[in-house]
Amino acid sequence: MTMVVLRNPRREVRVAGDRRVKDILRELDVIPETVLVIRGDELITTDQVVRDEETLELRPVMSGGGGLEAGRSGPRPDAAAALPR
Prior knowledge:
five-stranded mixed sheet; Ubiquitin-like (UB roll); mainly beta
C-alpha cells in the first residue's frame, strides 16, 4: 500500500500503489491542479507511477497576489525615477 499524506487538514490515507498519480488523485477526489505531489524531496507529475510502500505528500497550491507588495497598490515610489523625462 502507498501512504498519502494530505494537508489542510493533515491526514494520512493508504491506497493501492503500482499506478499513476492521476489515478490515486481520482480515487481521493482531488483535482490535480489544486495540489503539488511530492515523493521524498522530489516534485512529481500526475503521469508518474507510484509503487507500493512509497509515501506521497499532497500540498495545496497557494497563489499569490498580482506582484505588488502586500498592502500596497499603485507603482513603487522609485518607479517614477525610471521614466524618461
